[in-house]
Structures are given as C-alpha cells and as structure tokens.
Design goal:
Helix content: 10-25%
Oligomer: single chain
Bound molecules: tetrahydrodeoxyuridine
Distance between the termini: 29 Å
Number of strands: 6
CATH class: Alpha Beta
Length: 161
Amino acid sequence: MKKTIEIPYEEFSSLTELSQQEQDLLATATEAAKNSYSPYSKFHVGAALLLENDEIITGNNQENAAYPTGLCAERVAFFYSGAKFPNVPIKTVAITAYSEEISVNSPVPPCGDCRQAMIEYEERYDKKIRVIMRGASGKIIVFNQVSDLLPFHFDNSDLGM
Ligand code: THU
C-alpha cells in the first residue's frame, strides 16, 4: 500500500505578518547570532526560545577547530533551557542566520541532529513547539511542531517507554 505524508506549514513574505511577539523573538534570535563563535564557517546562527513562563532563552553556534565538536545554535539554546528551566515547556523557537560570505535570504532550517534534539523537548513536556525560520532577509516559514520536520523520528516509544 502506498502512503503519503503531508506536512503543513505557513509561509509569510513579510515580518509584519507575524505577531509582535514572534517578530520580537526573531529579532532576539538575530541579536543572538551576533554572539555566535563561527570563525570556520563564518555562518552565524541564532536561536531564541520563548518558554511557557515567558522567559526567553537564546543560543548561537559554537564552533571548534575539531569541526564535529562544535554545536549548532538550536541545541545550545535547547540544552541551556533544559539546564536552567528543567520543567518549563518551550512554546516557540525562532531561528535565523547571517553569513560574512554569502547572502542568506532563505529560511534557515535546523539540521537533522537539532530536529531530533528538539523533538525530545516536545515529547518531554508533551507540548508542541512552534518553529519560526528566517534567513537574514526574505520570507519566513512557520511549522506548528518540531515533529513535522522529522517524520519517522526515533523516540522513547521505540525503546518501549
Ligand atoms: N548551524 C547551526 O547552528 N544551526 C543550523 O540549523 C544549521 C547549521 C551551524 C553549524 C556550523 O557552526 C555552521 O552553522 C555551518 O554549518
């Protein structure tokens, strides 16, 4: 039997189509990207999380001379949120990036490892996390939940939990 998955998402051509709170979250992610440590890729990524207690947590990519040792902005932010507010669900993540070398004018999608890491928080708190992505300019795309970005992901149900 052939089956198909449809993944819903929204696309906006202008920032002003987002709520003020979401515009502010993207602006906070842009600020966070400026503190990225990315001397190797020169690609500065920022992530900003809005938590259910209205706290904002930010992260940015932290690179390393031993390349795989570095970490993406999203995981820096999510792990920090788990470390600082271990029982507070995450409502929204905004992700953006700019580069010293290329123009980033399409939305910046989280890598596969970050998707897997973010889903853990969605399931841990049993709360969908809205994902807002934008480049340094251009359109914005929004997903209702991280798991829409990673169909057939591995999770604790696969461990019999
Ligand atoms: N990067 C992120 O921080 N988040 C993403 O979603 C994609 C990639 C970082 C990793 C590396 O420091 C640089 O961007 C280039 O891959």
